[in-house]
Amino acid sequence: LQLQPQLQSKFDLQLQPQLQPQPKFDASIGDMMQWFKTMSTNEYIRNVKQNGWRPFYKKLWQRNYYEHIIRNEISYRRIASYIRNNPKKWNNDIFFNQS
Questions:
Q1: What is the sign of the dihedral through the CA atoms of 30, 34, 39 and 40?
Q2: 17 against 47, higher pLDDT
Q3: β-strands 13-15, 21-23: how paired?
Q4: Which residues pair with 7 in a beta bridge?
């Protein structure tokens, strides 16, 4: 039995002799973020065209991202609180448009 991978990218799975998929680890966090942003943007565009989703103008994603290593419980709690509470502030954001 021989398995042929469908995709040819650094995110593909490599097949081992036992036929157990093993992920490649040669992609950086930046590579993964770029892939995620590309795939989610393409999916959004598809839904704009096929399902009437509201189109976006200019960019769907900001150019860069912020990464931070969580080194202790205090840092974890602060970041978790930000993730939980920040969306609640969207109505007060200068980019919020209720139309």
A1: positive
A2: 47
A3: antiparallel
A4: none
Instruction: Decide: 23 and 13 in contact? Cβ < 8 Å.
Output: yes
Which tokens go with 48? 């704009």
Tens digit of pLDDT for each residue in 38-64?
999 999 999 999 999 999 888 888 887
pLDDT at 16: 46
**How many residues are recorded in the chain?**
99
Full-model pTM: 0.50
Query: 3-state class of 21 per DSSP?
Result: strand
H-assigned helices in the chain: 29-51, 73-85
